[in-house]
Amino acid sequence: MKKCIAFIIAGLSLSPAQIEFDVSFTPYVTYYLSVVDINTGESNVPIFIAELNRASGAPDTVGVDIEFEIIIDSDALGINNQTLVKVATTQPVSLSAPIHLTNMDLNLASDQIFDDAGNPVALHLDIVEKIEMDQAEQMFSAIVQTGRLPDGIYTFRVMATAEDGQRIIKEDILSISNPATLQLISPGGVLADTTLNEVYTSFIVFQWESDPCNYVDPITGESGCELFIRVAEFNPQEHSSIDQAIESVTRLPLEQGLGYEPVGFGVSTYQYPATGAGDLEPGKVYVWQIKKVLITTIGNEEILSEILAFKIKDFTETETTSGEGADTSPAGMALRSLIGEDQADEIFGPGGAAEGALATGNITLNGESVDVSFIQSLIATGIAETDADGNETFRPIELLSVEVEE
């Protein structure tokens, strides 16, 4: 008896596969309300595309059951690993030639599909499971406010089961969030006082903050939302606002038809200048803006940041807002930027402890000599720091002391 059982089990494990089931899921960042109707299974966006084939050596016709299920786990909604909707065949699909299908084919209004040979294949579908009404009402209330599926972990699962019991499951597990944060950090500020937003180099590192996008580009493999930058000059003779300036002729990109310059996926800094960028001239005011593109089920959605203004310091200017005789050399201006105008006037101005002293330009950092342009760059960008997750941020320079030699 033991030998017989062992023989039967071995025979089952060696039975050839009857079907092949290849599934590819479409990447999105945001899923809108129209993604699926839980009462009918109807959808107008492709969540998955599948190809169903008979395996080599399978019978001429194989019966196959198909299921499509969406599972949601959302703390915001208090839903823990619940089926949002499951659409399934109530009678097996007759597979003889390859069949291509998507989630848009799996709804109560569909009664047939055509295989690759042009033969009609009957579909008998039903909603075999869906979310409970009290949870559905809470979810739909959240959807009505934004038009989107709420944040949470969603599992999109497709399953094909052959008549001999062979089962193939394909799924895509997504942590869906609706990214909206896009905050500019530096350089710049309000247009009304560009003296507080001067930068001391034209080699600028633009910095911003953005919440992450759960998206992987299917072509490049890069992850995150794609971001773009736009830089333009503010000319007070031509522009009455920063909004008008940002819409005018741009320094980046120089090719005006582009509108915005792509800077990458999921990045938060951009080093200027780069290929396709115009020079930033001393004494002039510039404005900049970041655009973030979300891939959603209803097409691309754009989020625009605020607009900041900054001025490139002109070291040839002799007039300053500080006291008479102020040090206007590059090193002196860098020092004033570090300690602030008020404190600089108090130390180096009339009656100050170091009245009339001039910066020599001999600068050391951690015991090593550095050029003033390096300090100017640090003033503009801050000190780079990397957190435990590998994210790079920049903090302002903190001045500990100033030494003066007679």
Structural topology:
Elements: H1 2-13, E1 19-25, E2 48-54, E3 62-74, E4 79-89, E5 93-95, E6 99-102, E7 112-114, E8 120-122, E9 125-130, H2 133-146, E10 152-162, E11 167-176, E12 182-186, E13 198-199, E14 205-210, E15 226-234, H3 242-246, E16 250-252, E17 261-265, E18 269-271, E19 285-296, E20 299-304, E21 308-312, H4 330-339, H5 341-348, E22 363-365, E23 368-370, H6 372-381, E24 383-386, E25 392-395
Parallel strand pairs: 13-21
Antiparallel strand pairs: 1-2, 2-6, 3-4, 3-5, 3-10, 4-9, 7-8, 10-11, 12-14, 14-18, 15-16, 15-17, 15-19, 19-20, 19-21, 22-23, 24-25
Helix pairs in contact: 4-5, 4-6
Can you tell me the CATH topology of the largest domain?
Immunoglobulin-like
The end-to-end distance, rounded to whole angstroms, is 105 Å
Q: Which bin fits the share of residues in helices? A: 10-25%
Number of helices: 6
Strand proportion, as a percent range, falls in: 35-45%
Mean pLDDT over the full residue set: 80
**Structural class, from helix and strand content?**
mainly beta
Number of domains: 3
Second-tier CATH architecture of the largest domain:
Sandwich
> How would a crystallographer describe the biggest sheet?
7 strands, mixed
Report the radius of gyration as a whole number of Å. 32 Å
Count of β-strands: 25
Kindly provide the name of the CATH class of the largest domain: Mainly Beta
Uncertain residue segments: 1-14, 318-323
Described by the principal axes of the CA atoms, the overall outline is: elongated
